[in-house]
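User: Please predict structures.

Assistant: First:
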Amino acid sequence: MEESSAEVPDSSTQDDVPPLAVKDVNVLLERERSEGISSPSRDDDSTLLNPGTHSSILEDNTKSESGLPETLPLNGHKSCGLCFSDGKCRIDYILVYRKSSSQSEKREIFERNIRAEGLQMEKEASVTNSDVIFLKLHAPWDVLCRYAELMNIRMPFRRKIFYMHRRHKFMSRMEKRINKFRGWLPRKPMKFDNDTLPDLEENESFTAPFSRSRIHHFIIHNKDTFFNNATRSRIVHHILQRVKYEEGKNKMGLNRLLSNNSYEAAFPLHEGRYHSKNSIRTHGAENHRHLLYECWAWWGVWYKYQPLDLIRRYFGEKIGLYFAWLGWYTGMLFPAALVGLFVFLYGLFTLEHCQVSKEICQATDIIMCPICDQYCPYLRLSDSCIYAKVTHLFDNGATVFFAVFMAVWATVFLEFWKRRRAVLAYDWDLIDWEEEEEEIRPQFEAKYSKKERMNPISGKPEPYQAFTDKYSRLVVSTSGIFFMILVVIAAVFGIVIYRVITVSTFAAFGWALIRNNSQVATTGTAVCINFCVIMLLNVLYEKVALLLTNLEQPRTESEWENSFTLKMFLFQFVNLNSSTFYIAFFLGRFTGRPGAYLRLINRWKLEECHPSGCLIDLCMQMGIIMVLKQTWNNFMELGYPLIQNWWTRRRLRREHGQKAKAGFPQWERDYNLQPMNAYGLFDEYLEMILQFGFTTIFVAAFPLAPLLALLNNIIEIRLDAYKFVTQWRRPLPSQAKDIGIWYGILEGIGILSVITNAFVIAVTSDFIPRLVYAYKYGPCAGQGRAGEGCMMGYVNASLSVFQVNDFEKRSQPRTTGSELIGEAVKYCRYRDYREPPDSAEPYSYTLQFWHVLAARLAFIIVFEHMVFAIKTLIAYLIPDLPKDLRDRMRREKYLIQEMMYEAELERLQKERNEKKKKKDRAHHKEWP
């Protein structure tokens, strides 16, 4: 069904339809059903082809179209804005231009050539601006058939029938019983009612490339709905891309006319309004847009599955694949979020039994050295009690399991997505689809038009870019990329300096709450500033990526898109994660020790970790950045177009009050909506890919990341749906068989996540030091076990002793610490494995330090090899194509061969009959 009104037209519209076009076909179909010749049901087991009488009628209809309206009017009204002024010809495409434009000659030639191709046109001035002209285009049936054949568009020719093997009969009976039992249960809340969604019959049929010579083999119940609106728009766009506007071998195509401002806009129409006064349950959907809004874009159906077939039919396969991938990713986040929540709850429930947290909370007699120069006071270790408990929530015995689980999860997600994509590609007729040879970009053509060479595919001369020019531009572009990465590093360096300076400032702050939590306050404000820097640099990076991509002069649009995608992903990935990498792997690692601190520019002492560890800083960084960025992105995605469209409506109501109340035609309403982003789905994919990286790369430090991502994506799906259905012009329905370059990026992130999580567990967390202590130095040393009882004394063993008289002059605290213990502090503790000041080699590394370092390196190697082996094994065991899909593809291939065979038999039979008739006529002539 293309539209509900098209399926059940008005009686007034039925009167205009010639009997031969609709009535006879319907009578024939009814006769076929009664005779058991052919049935549209899934259980149909009839002959492959429809009878010859059916084909003859369809052939007669295609030969003679006089008096047949090309489309049925919507709801019997021509004022709906979806048809020409005659109320019959459906508008398949809209071009918008201004009369005052200086490109009128090119437009006239272009429009004359459009008519020559068989398209019908109608012009109408804007209701709100007489200078704006809308050019409405309609493709008649013969044009659609001709170009559907040229474009190899696959159309339904046979209902899908699958035969079950004998050994599956028992399973079939069991399935019937289970389904009968399910019928007694309440309906599944996440699925839509079958009565709500239209019968998308092409998904229940085998398809083959359309051919006018074999048109009678295809399932054509109604010529007006045989090609759906998305296909019609795609055919018209294909024609417009190949129509000339000026004499010259490359002076053709709508894109060039849009780039030189001959036309202001070009878009297919939405199918009417998306909202209605009547409920869809009682009155049905008015059109597909209304149906998509009620069943997909409305926030009240956030818990339901997406109607992917309907999305594909309305917006095309490319956008359908994006939402299919987003839904698949969101669904796969459920197990990851549950396991991450389990890890968090495990830490919460075992908090009271954590020996390390107990020792830190009870260590009132252990005095820690100041964390900054002069202004920071001595602290009791017990002051870090709350931070030690929070650290245990994320850094506990289940962390390693969760890191391995997420590495395996990433592989399973990608492998099963390949299977899901294959099923969608088959159902949407994309298995054998190949992208057409692209046109050369106008910028490339203008730059290199003087030098040409023969295209080995088309055999035609085309502009050519010399090898030296291409790679010199590539070198300059690569240099620009490295320079921008250095800008990111400089920004991180600035954040580091801010943290170093601010921790001293907060330590001397007048407010006791800030002064006592100076390190946490420093981390929190640094993360917020870092977020602001990230968002500002993102704007700069987009402009730089655009400049560098144009500098490379890519030959085609897909080459331009891939180059721009890689640059933007690299820029934003480094920009988003650089500070996180610093906190995870560098914070507190190269500070030196009390009395011999390493300094930045020989001035600022590098920041140390909190007495409870560095993991709390990493958790804060990830949590704040993830929440703020996702909130900001969601606001900008929906808030910006909402505000712009609201302002446009407000202006139109103010300037054209009465006309605005009466309502504008559909093309006027769509023109006032926001156009789809110039980069297509790039921003949507980039946002989700960066989130995927944030969810997997440092997930060992922040197990709640998948849960936050899941909650965001549930909102993201409906937000994007609302944006596409209500706030944007309808994008051109285009085809794609996969998600393109993004899949390779996802695989790269999956590999990187294994490495980073290995380092987070081994270096950032205290998992390895605790393990070494339990097996080598603790009460259970040599017993081969490592329970909580084996961790007694770990805190004392992990802290080294420093004599305060050995402080550098510029590091000497201004307080003596007498307020803590009643007298001046003589010794303080710090996190490290060093000899005491009274040993033979004071402050040198202990043997425990080297044991811990060796264990960390060994863990990284073992963890990486083990996880990569598991990932490789899983990828090998999971086939890319499901077995039932392979069977369906083989059956479809068989049926297509049968159709071609029978078509050839029909042709030979027709030739024999004609020869026989000629022979009979000659015989009658010779008879006296």
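Second:
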Amino acid sequence: MLCRPLHPLSAAFPLINMLRSYVRPRPSLPLIFTATALGLFALAPARAQIALPPKPDANATEAAAAKNAEAVKLSVFTVSEQQDLGYESMQTTSGMRTVQDLKNVANSISIINAQFIEDIGATNLDEMSKWFVTGEANPDPALPNKGIFRGIVNNYAVRNGWIWYSPMESYATERVEILRGPNAFLYGEADLGGANNQITKRGLFTRNLNRVKLMIGSNELHRAELDLNRRLNDKVAVRIAAVQQKNESWVHHVRREFRGIYGAVTYRPFRRTTISLMAEHAKSTGVNAQGLFIDGYSFNTVTTLTNTAGYVYVPASGTFFRANTMRRSAGSNLTAIDPTIVPKDLQVTGPNGTAKNYYDSVTLDAEHHIGENLHLMLSGNFYQQKLDTWGAAAARTIYRDLSPTLPGGAINPNFNQLYTEYFRTRNINGNIVRDVRLSAVYDLKLSWMQQQFVFNAQQHQDNPGAMRPKWGEYVDPSNPNFVGSINTAGTQAAFTANRATFTNNRFIRRYYLRDGDGGSITGDLGPIPGVSAWFPDFSNLVPAGGNQISRRFYTPSLGAGASGSYFNNRLFTLVGLRQDAFKMKTTVGAPRPIANTWVNDNIPGAFAPNPSFVNYKLSGSNYGVVYRLNDMFAVSYNRAQSFRISLGEGSNLYTVGSRQSIPTGEGSDMSARFTLLGGRLEANLTRYDNYQPNARISPAPVVAIRDEVAAIFPTTFNPTGTDYQKLTTSGYELELIANLTRTWRLSLNASTNELVTEDRLPLLKSFQSEARALNRATPLLDTFLLNFPEGVPNAGYTKTRFNVFTRYEFPRGALKGVYIGGGANWRDRTFRGNGTPVQGSPVQALWSPSYTLISVLAGYRTKILNRPTTFALNVDNVQDTDYYVSATLNTGSWGAPRSFRFSTSIDF
């Protein structure tokens, strides 16, 4: 029986309630800007009337600084901000969870620090990611917070070493560490391509900080940030950051509001003990873009609709009808990229189709040092997100109406017009995550080597909120247009029957493109009294295998590693091994088919096995070496593994009695590292070769092919099974960070990528071989397998990418304080898959085109009323390039047009 343990952060929950009191309805942002600015400048005359404290004694100041430096140096778990110089970050914790010099870590790690984030004008991780060497945000608006690393979609990010699903905002960010390639030893659950690790701000003992930043920009962007740091005494430092943002978009109806407050307290009760508490409460409310629509109109094929089309409502005309017997066009099912047919700014889910993400987090780190060699840390993490999303199912495809008349015989006023349609949904979801980790680090120091041994014991617990209500808009059963009947019996058979009934009664909202997407026709969320009603979404969000009543999973893990340096810091090694377990209990039930009512019943004997239990174990290793020839040049090699243990066993395979195994991966990185110009230029060239031997694939042969094989192997072939393929990603990554002078800094990176599939469908091919050995012909299977050749690309990878950004500040003369800069993002074409864009043409490889974006920066640093003040202007896509990004055949989005942001930062 799974029990709920007392979490070490229970005592910290009152801090969340304090933060919640901040994030409440606020005055408008322009009013906040005005009040903040007036308040800051009003302080100037008052300052002269306030008795300032006497100047501190110089010796006392130096002693305090030395004491703080000793404490900072003592920590082996936290990187100090003092280790950053311009865009260059010297240290990382993403190699062994301990502080290490980045250039001596075998893992492939990139860092985006606070100075770079400030200069590019980014407000969230998606905006930062376009400057990453890999890990750019997914172009599909339906997949937020999921980057593409080395051509492979990542399923979640990491924050302070813990899994994170919510937005990542810059106001609370100190740096972002990009972990490239497999990294199971460090984080356990991991995707093959890598992950982002957001490092949040902490209380600083090095300085006090009082800063406000105001930003305005294109598309009605208004943003205000506050960042305060107070060193209360030698033992306590407090950091408070807050943000409020509101913006529209160039896409119709799309908008976002974000409010958040973040707090961090660093407490040193003893010289060798540090306790850090970090907490955040934030609310994100937005209306999302739909992305690129899908071509369902370009072929001359005609589709006659059946009753499964549901009941259609045209808001522009107020018309209702059953769509069966009506005709519509067909198309390539590829993204529609002709803006003369489908406008780039089209969005038909309307101004009220919001997506809310409210989240709270508390992280507690307690660090203690025993002597000079033994270091302990106990970490606890609590994170909860609450999601409420108004969605649109069966959406984004554009059809042409080919019915001259309506079902009742009347003339169809929209004959030959393009339209799109969907039925509305509402999904209330979320997570409650609890984590705890104990780390022990022992430093062994000998005359010829130093060895750092690391031991970790961790447990990650996640309670997904899939049991919360999932609504869909359906025809009201009291309406004569409702077809079939609802079965109220509490059985699995009744549940299955109701799924079919509700599929036939979806309330479809249809929008003809010539009517536009104005809020008057797209803003209604429903229901329409007497016509439609909200029911549990049997035909869509509620799974066929039952809806979750409860689910809780644990991933306990144990890990040990050693990081060594030898021969006067010429040779560095890394060895690590970690074992993770995945334990999950899931209970499912059947929602009652009652309007506006969510009751999910546990039906005895249904959906067996119920409850279901899962218990897996996997291990991941990591070993690497860095050899430094001299201060200017080093070479490295790293080999690591990855696994997605929480996916568990997948679907049944074609071989009876077997299921898909847990996805695993591994690979190697080799690099050459340069430190030139006395350390002012750091360069790193990496060659990577990573692969996943058991990538899942569902080829779905037609019934005739399955029957052909089943006739030969009736007891060993599973006609509804799935198969495997090997996924390989390889390429080069170049990174260069330079501080050429005190006032000139530069960041440059480039990468290449090849992503191919090999060893495809080994199970189906084994049945083919066995049939040949039996002298049994399989002509249909033989032809089908020809559609899966070896070595073909896999969708999602960009062949080549290049980013550069630089900033120069005039140090003297009439332009002193003025700085200028800018950069460029170049993307080679991205592979989307194989498809048929023109009816009757052969299948061909499809790519989204390459593009180049130019950004410029101009700013001025000065003092106003003796307060350091910075003005900055960022302009993105200066040349107003028209482009789109797409990583699959039927998803993607148009790129944003030229935009600007003007910000003012004041230290007070």
